[in-house]
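Field log, afternoon session.

UNIT: design team B
ACTIVITY: writing a sequence onto a fixed backbone
BACKBONE:
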């Protein structure tokens, strides 16, 4: 949570119309949503996922990857945390290159 707080309270991550508060009416829906139940329905579409090596959310990507069917690929970005993948060139640039190669391979 600290990383999220730090990122969304910067000029880069802040949106002036976003309060950052959850509404009680949406919390139940968020808690009930379990996306891993539907990951296999993506197949046989190619799946490419990225996760920062040091991201607290990395386990979500690893879980989704584990239940996905082929073709699939999970790229762990060395040295990156979750929010580093948003806008830090040293992490984003290699991801963009990987995305381009992925799209060239699968979008024909």
């Amino acid at each position: 949570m600290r990383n999220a707080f730090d990122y969304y309270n910067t000029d880069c991550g802040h949106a002036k119309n976003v309060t950052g508060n959850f509404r009680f009416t949406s919390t139940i829906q968020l808690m009930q949503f379990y996306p891993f139940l539907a990951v296999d329905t993506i197949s046989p579409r190619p799946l490419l996922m990225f996760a920062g090596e040091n991201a607290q959310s990395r386990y979500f990507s690893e879980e989704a990857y584990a239940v996905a069917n082929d073709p699939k690929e999970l790229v762990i970005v060395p040295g990156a945390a979750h929010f580093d993948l948003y806008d830090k060139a040293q992490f984003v640039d290699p991801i963009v290159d990987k995305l381009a190669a992925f799209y060239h391979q699968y979008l024909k």
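LOG NOTE: Strands lie at 47-52, 72-77.
NEXT ACTIVITY: expression trials, pending approval
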